[in-house]
Design brief:
This protein is mostly helical. The chain has three domains: about 120 residues, Up-down Bundle (Four Helix Bundle (Hemerythrin (Met), subunit A)); about 35 residues, no CATH class; about 35 residues, no CATH class. The protein is built from seven helices and no strands. The N and C termini lie far apart (about 95 Å).
Length: about 230
Amino acid sequence: MRHPQLSGDHLRRLRDRLLAERSQLRDRVRRMDDLDLGRSMGDWLGELSTYDNHPADIGDELHQRSRDLGLKIRFRRRLEEVDHALELMRRGEYGICTGCGRPIPLERLEVQPAAVRCTACQQAVDDAGSIARPAEEEPLALHWRRLMDDDVDPTAAEEVGYDREDAWQEVERYGTSSPPADEAGVTGYEEPFLHHEEAVGAVQAVEAVPAEERVPGGDPDDDAGDGGAVRG
């Protein structure tokens, strides 16, 4: 199906604009490839390691690299749109909305030669994409709430003996980029940790005492009375 109002001269003019934009986009992508964005952050900076630096130490470099990567992705996506429009021209289907099958207004094609949908169909696609989330987020969200929120019903998810919260508590005790001064009311380096008051490896304090050090006949469940006393 051909566009009823799209003349040959009009089509050639739009094609020339698309070819010029494609050439410009290819040149931009080629320059982005010369920036070695595929290399690791450490190799790109020339640092032996980036783990021993505070995040703010390489903030400018990280921002610049993130911006370059974002621009490269944006240029590649735009290049795909232009190539798709040129392919539709080659097949004689240019100017017809791929959503509803109706002719795209000439005014829209003049402003956006790479458009393959009418305004209404494009708006519907944009609205659907703005709320679409990865499918794996739903189970992950429930798992995260169970880990961090004590009000969540524990029967709503499968119980695990060792999860990512436990792993984080182990490694954060070796130090993070957040000093005690960043937290209100914290005076020591152990206090900023999540649940730092919890007894590691024991539910009650008495359970952390080796059995051979307890007074014979003592109550193992009594961590406050005489039954739970230990030898001095």
